[in-house]
Amino acid sequence: MSRPDELTDPNLRDPVLARLGEGADPSPARRQALVDRIAAGGAEARRPARRRRGVWWIGAAAAAAAAVVAAVLLRPAEPDPMPPTALFEALLGPLPTLTASEPVPPDADPPDSPATDALFVFWQDLKEPLSIVAQAASGPRAFLEDDRLENEPVRPAPAGESETKEN
Amino acid sequence: MADAVDWETVRLAARGDPAARRDLVERTIDNLWRLAMRLTRRADDADAIVQETYTRALANLEGLQANGRFEGYLARIATNLVLQRWRKKRPTGPVPVHLADAREEPWQQVARDEDDRRRLSAVWQAVGELDPKPRAAVLLFYAQGESCDAIGRILDAPAGTVKTWLHRSRNQIRRRAESLLAEHPIPGIASHGDLT
Fold first, then answer.
1. What is the pLDDT of residues A47-79, one digit of tens each?
2. Largest Cα–Cα separation, chain A
3. Which domain holds residue B162?
């Protein structure tokens, strides 16, 4: 049998810790005021408030759910992604387009897309000026080549011939 | 001390009898206010806890089972209300050892001299630093005089757990109080470890 301790005998409880219970009595005036407040119907007065509080929470939850649904349904549609041609035009300005009346060069490769089509037309327009420039450049070059021929060193005269003989 | 409440009075109060309701309050309010005061250490807080406890208890009398003590039912409600407060407001503020600004503390009325006042202040500060449930167990056991079984019912814990809380808490209180009063050790706190 275990010896008695403070758990089994209240008289053995720690005397210092037992003093934690001292000084906790209500004054008569405070006690009477509290009893009157409770008896005045504090419990009955709170019952409807609790019911109202429950209704308030339900209403708030329903309103929040309705707001979420409305936000999802009424949100603006996202714009379609910009097509490549529009993007190209936005960057470089309006592009010329091929029409049925315009002749298509026989050696031209079929265009793959509006963008490559536009580049092809641009290249066709550019080829002729480039050829003119190339022809213009070839003249001076021929002249230079001729000039280079004239400036070649004079070959030595055949044996037996001399300037004195000629003179 | 008022007589224990009989369940016939509780039954009448549950039917709405105003005299029975007032009798319930008159018989139980002193002990309940002491409990609230020991847990909260402020008279105004004790008033609020007591009023809220009766509000909840009287509103749910109809479904109350007639077993045990009605006072235990009230103590359980009040302790849970205080535990909610402690959990919302942790840690508790330090209690000044010299008590210069602690005129509302309950031991101000019971301290015999300055040394006694300092000792009680240090013990209360150490109690206030315990976790909520062990702190409630210490106050219910030492200040309120409840048994371990009754504390277990109030705190919804096995009696063995309550004994463990008491054992550990007492050692923790002693060490903490001694460190607070390092120059003036507290000889009164026992150091035996046979609680469990």
1. 444 445 566 778 888 888 888 888 888 877 666
2. 162
3. 94-196
